[in-house]
Amino acid sequence: MSDQTPNPNDMNNAIINQWTQDELDHMNLFEAFNFDNHGQRFGLHPIYRLPLLALSGSLVGGVSGMMYGYQLGGLKYLAMNAHRMPTDRNGWFYYHKRKNFVCLKDSFVTGFRQAAKVGLLVGTLFSLEAYFDYARGTIDFANTMMATTISGWIYANAYQLSSYQAKSLVKRGAGVGLLLGLLQDASNYLIGNDVWYLRVFFGINPRLSRKLS
């Protein structure tokens, strides 16, 4: 870190930017990573956070989709072969061998589809959240609520749900957004970030002082 600290009375934007760049140039990789992520949701800048969340959503959606696809494939195979069930041991052996192949194929197909859908939905949701964080210049639950509400509206229109179903989905999205946003605000407070409404309305300042040295 540089030992020369600019005089606040003489500082302008150019000096601040140059001083900040000089500080960054002297940081090691870990310090620069912490500086870049300071004050962000989950302690991660959107550049890192969004791909991780989308990937996590894809993994969860893929695993659940594979499980569902395997079960559904078994039911379909049973329905297709109910009129010609095996009558001997060899027949049952090949029946189950073929069934396992069909179920695995259906599980992978359904898993990939579900992974793409969930990954896209999660990526869209948290990208909207990050955009509102940037546009409003503050990080709080309101941005999460707006992101989940808009995501619910997009989902309802994409699948052409009825007006009643769309309204219900949007309302549930707002409720989920409120809960998720408050949980994120609590997480931000615990890791030492400033939660503005706690400070303004309740006088609760950040619990940790995270200064780079």
TrEMBL record:
Q: Which organism is it from?
A: Komagataella phaffii (strain GS115 / ATCC 20864) (Yeast)
TM spans (from-to)? 50-70
Top-level division of the source organism's lineage = Eukaryota
| Name under which the protein is recorded | Uncharacterized protein
**What PANTHER family does the entry give?**
HIG1 DOMAIN-CONTAINING PROTEIN (PTHR37852:SF1), YALI0B21208P (PTHR37852)
Transmembrane among keywords? yes
Q: Which keywords, in A-to-Z order, does the entry hold?
A: Membrane, Transmembrane, Transmembrane helix
